[in-house]
Specification:
The chain has 11 helices and 19 strands. The chain has 370 residues and is an alpha/beta fold. The longest helix is centred in the C-terminal third of the chain and has 13 residues. The structure holds glutamine. Glutamine binds next to strand 16.
Length: 370
Amino acid sequence: MSQPRAILLLADGTTFHGKAAGKIGTTTGEICFNTGMTGYQEVFTDPSYYGQLLVTTNAHIGNYGTTSVDTESGSIKIAGLICKNFTVPYSRHLAEASIQDYLEGEGLVGISDVDTRAIVRHIRTRGAMNGIISSEIFDLAELKRRLDAVPNMDGLELSSFVTTPEAYTLGNPDATYRVAVLDLGTKQNILRNFLKRDCYVKVFPAKSSVEDIMAFLPDGLFISNGPGDPGAMDYAVTTAQGMLDQEKPLFGICLGHQILARAVGIPTYKMHHGHRGINHPVKNLITGKSEITSQNHGFGVSPEAIAQNLDRVEITHRNLNDDTIEGIRVVGKPAFSVQYHPEASPGPHDAAYLFDQFIDLIKEHQAVRA
Ligand SMILES: NC(=O)CC[C@H](N)C(=O)O
């Protein structure tokens, strides 16, 4: 079976020619790459990828099929897929559908049979930029016209597109701990980690007020991962400041970490091309131990600003590849956060201890409930 052709045009004019994968159509977004050797379905459905074209550096995508459970949200969130071998026949006894049926069913446009190593080198050299994939338009002027209309990721608020429309609860109302989650685009495995640790969880829409959240009588507060530029999310920063005022244990992951940093006056910045993969080494500066982490972010928190505000923020984790900030603790508050993903999915479980650390903090602070 021969696949129809497809094209990828980047904002700097570079083109790559390949074959159509998934739905025939046209899609746009900021291009990024993930170096994970496994876990493509978890990555496709991670809401933090909303608005991004994903290059997978693993040479084979689709070879173990797809299921209805290996998902981090209810649908595919990447804006487009760019891969090398798009393998439709699959081999895994639990798989339910081929990658082609899955992508077509979800309406995702992709391109395969392109030199993903060359694309990654290009992004690593030139930095993140917008791109357009099409398997129906091949006129470069028309593709460029459409690409020019795509907004820059820098300054984009995207959590509103992926947060829950209504608050909902999960787990046993009589569980030992009550955790309120500010949903900026949460991955399911974060919620599963709370449920596994005897928590009753209430997930709140991104623009919920602190009053709404506190009405749940939470023992712990959590700010989730999510897509877009943390610098464009003043509403969430205000909520995080209100959460800090409660003196309750507060934990943030990725976008939640960036929002917590902003809440204590530390700005964020756009990285050259971000960190996305499942083998990023991080050092815990408190214990001296290193851990291999799952990552997915294109923004970071400013090390220069932290250096000038050490009375307010303590650095707890550093990236061993490039020394970027990977974790902080707010001085004088029971609040901490990490830039990476202790929930993994996909990725190693080295950092799962951070969920235990949050529960321990809750135990210390747990108020007697009426
Ligand atoms: N995984 C995340 O929460 C990503 C946070 C943010 N959107 C970034 O790209 O840095």
